[in-house]
Fold this protein.
Amino acid sequence: MSALEVSRREQAAWRTRELVRGVAVTAFDAIEHREPIEGFHELSRPALDDPLAGVRAGRLVSDVAAGQLREWALRARGAGRTWDDVGEALELPAALEGGTRAEAAWEWLVEHRPPAPSREPGCPWSAVWTCTTCRGRVRDTGPFASHPDACETGHVDGCARRTAALQAWRRETEGGSDVEE
């Protein structure tokens, strides 16, 4: 892939991000504004006043894109392309555990079972975000553990959001006090 192709692909990704924000504004009544980029003087990026409007818009765009993905794959089949060709266009590996690239493409587009993302063995899934209360970079491992500190690490000491989560957890599980650990 040439540098020009990478550039075009990145331009398309930026346009898609703009589209999601635009859908949030148009369909879900969000207001777009600019927010500063931490660590960069006088630089900002677009943001939404309601992040959940962005979630709703992202879901809508994702659902429409999934329908288009399937439609174009079926058009490719109609034009004589194989399921392996479709799998290659989906950037699936040629050899997959438990089946072929063609089978994986079929499972993804017809049976609605996309392949699991790859990751290092023993490395738990996590997401990183910035807490708007304490500005700490938080590693979130999901809502699977009971104790808030088992789900989120990285809040700044004394973070009011973390303190409130600990208090709520104590009330739910121990009927305990409101004192921070």
Observations:
- The helical segments are 3-28, 51-78, 83-89, 101-109, 148-151, 160-173.
- The longest helix spans residues 51-78.
